Amino acid sequence: MPSRTVSHGASGRLRGLFLVMVLVFLEGSVFTVAVASSDQHSPITAHSGSHKATDHGSHNNTGKAFPVLDLNYENVRVPFEISLWVLLASLMKLGFHLVPHLSNIVPESCLLIVVGLLVGGIIRGTGETVPPVLDSKLFFYILLPPIILDAGYFLPIRPFMENLGTILIFAVVGTLWNAFFVGGLLYGVCQIGTESSSILSRIGLLQCLLFGSIISAVDPVAVLAVFEEIHINELLHILVFGESLLNDAVTVVLYHLFEEFSGIGSVTLLKGFLGVISFFVVALGGVLVGVLYGILAAFTSRFTSHTRVIEPLFVFLYSYMAYLSAEIFHLSGIMALIACGAVMRPYVEANISHKSHTTIKYFLKMWSSVSETLIFIFLGVATVAGPHDWNWTFVTVTVILCLVARVIGVVGLTFIINKFRIVKLTTKDQFIIAYGGLRGAIAFSLGFLLNKEHFPEREIFLTAIITVIFFTVFVQGMTIKPLVELLAVKKKQEAKRSINEEIHTQFLDHLLTGIEDICGHYGHHHWKDKLNRFNKKYVKKCLIAGERSKEPQLIAFYHKMEMKQAIQLVESGGGIKMPSAVPSTVSMQNIQPRPSTKPAPERAIPQLSKNKEEEIRKILRTNLQRTRQRLRSYNRHTLVADPYEDGLSDLFLKKQKMFQIEKKLKEMNTYLTVPAPPPDSPTMCRARLASDPQAYSIKPASNKVPMIQVDLASPQSPDSVNLLDEFGQANQQEEEEQGLMMKPPSRPREAKKPSEEDEAKDQQRLMRCLSDPGPSADEDEDGAFLP
Amino acid sequence: MYNYKHYCKNLHKYIHIVDVCFFTVSQEQIKNLYQRFQQLSGNHEKISRDDLERIPALNNNPIRKQIITAFFDKRNQHQNDVGSLDEIGFEQFLMVMSHFRPVNSTATEEEKVTVRKQKLRFLFNMHDTDNDGIITLDEYRTVVEELLSQSGAIETEVARSIADAAMLEVASTNVHSPHSRPRMISMKESHLSILNRFRWINIFSMMSIRFLDMNSATMRCGKLSS
Known about the structure:
By secondary structure, chain A is mostly helical. Chain A has helices spanning 2-6, 10-38, 43-62, 77-98, 102-105, 108-125, 136-153, 157-162, 164-193, 205-215, 220-230, 234-264, 269-301, 311-328, 333-351, 354-385, 392-417, 427-435, 441-448, 458-487, 499-519, 524-543, 553-571, 610-623, 648-660, 662-666, 670-673, 682-691, 721-732, 755-769. By secondary structure, chain B is mainly alpha-helical. Chain B has a two-stranded antiparallel sheet with strand order 1-2. A two-stranded antiparallel sheet of chain B has the order 3-4. In chain B, α4 (64-71) packs across α6 (109-127) and α7 crosses α8. The model of chain B is unreliable at 175-193 and 211-226 (pLDDT under 50). Chain A: It is found in: Basolateral cell membrane.
């Protein structure tokens, strides 16, 4: 419904929005009814319960006819409520994007909290007690893991590792500084600033320190939510985000430490020392657990070639188990999850099918998105739920201290860190890092977990935590975008990762390692190189199935790029329109052309006469590879069977075989010396192109059409001069290129080249284009191409 | 352990080389490099290619030949010479190493641009093996083949196609060519266009070595031929 309204313009949008709001309120009311009918604490429960009982009773007593329509809400209550909440969250996400300018000004997280407040308000307004939705168990075991897994699985490893030192210093030292600063000063303020009889003065030092440790941790959920929309450069993003992930270990340790101390009531030096030790245990233990599960997952994925369907399940299960296992031992679950995702990713991706990869990606994105939305809505509801104890002094002092501590911490640490960094952090960077230290739901949940006996001031703490969260998310979240614009902070570059980049990155890596070796200096390039070699030699062999284990990274990357480009090419209209920078999309092995249900006119498939079919077949049979085996069941109107499932490794093997047959085909000169076949009608060209992903139409030489001749594998040619002309033309043309076309050999070229070379080149070019399973010598497959 | 007298005599010269290019490295590190140089050369005045090739750690490096050649390349000595030397002294060694210095954060924008150009020029020289100021497709192919040379049986076709794809990409995105005849820019990259191409490389972070960490403790003394 919303999708249709969008196209109708502003009024449509308003209508959509109205509908969404109506739905919200509907749900709110339904939910209250649900709450009403089931809430144990509400007095109405008794009524409805008895009402139901009497209903049933009356049914039994009067021996009525079989109840055609019956109401039994109890059975489905819990799943129903959960689904309602999730539905509400998703509709909210939809709704925000319908309102034209709202999402630019206000970050989504703020809006979601407001919605949560509204819903909470509605529930309270109807006289019910608001359910404690942000239950810590629910939060830590259900809502948080998908977000962290999404972050960990897609963590950009290279920038993370390059900045690991900086991130660790911010995470560990920064959080410690924040915790002690806020806690200590707060205690001081409580003791000194207020009268001795006030409630504040009863807050002990340990309680303050515990509060400080809860409030000082930067929250990954909030950071993700806000930073996602501002698109700052990769360095800053990874610094703040990495810090928010890694400070979990510190938070866990401090929390348990202070909680235990508060319970016991005394601190000894030994306990303090044990605390430090436990930090290392928690952090490293978490990482170890994660790595273990990651390796297990990678190993399992090696054997899944026959049951592709459950591959994503393994990824999710192993990761979740890593998280839970770490939580058993009070280790850092977040670090376990990150380590698991990051470790298993390269190996799992080499093993699983393309579809599983897409599934994993989209499931993770979906779950993390829903989780995030729910978390913010629940924050709003929990705010309304209370219980609150507002204390002006405490709250304002907390907010101010948090800000001050963050700024001082970042500035001080950057000063030290810059001595060791090659690319220094500028003042602008420091400001963004300090400003981006958002607090979120983790702090609230931790506060919620506090034991009431040890912490009689729990409500004050909770109120203060919520205020800080609101302040950071609303004020800082809303203003960070205009500030980023104002300060002209470098934004994320949209350039896609290209093959050039990969080549040069690898080249530079090796260069620097070599220079370090010449200097005799064991720098971090040296160790990185050692790790890579170890990985290649031993680990990959164990964890990656089949041939892929030996594939060097550059080649793997190249193939991945090829696939992507090829799929893009096909999806954008069967090769008629080409994306702007297309290097080598010519080895399109496994493309699944879009079903021809798309009504685009260029894909109209005409009826071919028998003669023309024969012609086409003859040409293609001799010039092209024997790849038609794969298309045996081809029908113009249906999908090509997805060869992905057969395993990419086979493809690469076959590619190798292909080149052995090169020589054989060289003998088949007959067709190559024949001048171009009579120019086919454009529809036929397109038909061929549209129907066979690997066909390249032999387009009639026409000067108006800019052509890009792709000469990608010319083992004989000393120089690819051919490309020059075409590129020259292509560069001069302002219009879009018309797709990859193979020119018939007889087309006059500006470069002077011996004709045999041309032929050989063409033939290899054709072969290269249609690279795939080795052509067999026999030419029997007649009917393979067109039905 | 090293020729202290000789070193002190020429120290001012070394510092001059170093200062010329906004070096952020101290005298201590020059001393360390000198120590290493003496090690490599067996206490002689100059080192030859064989000395460098004897370093065992370099064996695993797929581009070791290019690296060693770069040291002996006259173009990296900031003079307008072309060709290669047979032996180099410490000054030339230092000159080549200076390409990898981290840039001073107090440097001005122009200085940064100069340093960046120098680093890129070094990279360019490494690719351009025939000293003609132009990188051709073949030279690029050699690069890719070298990179893949460590991984067992290279499929030469794949290596070539990777190089071709990369060149295509460059050519297709290099729209503002100063040359009049567009055909010249595509496969042969001149120095100017390569600067454009490589703007995505954060050259400062990628091509810098932290000399700060270098001291005699981290240097492997005496393990040259192990």
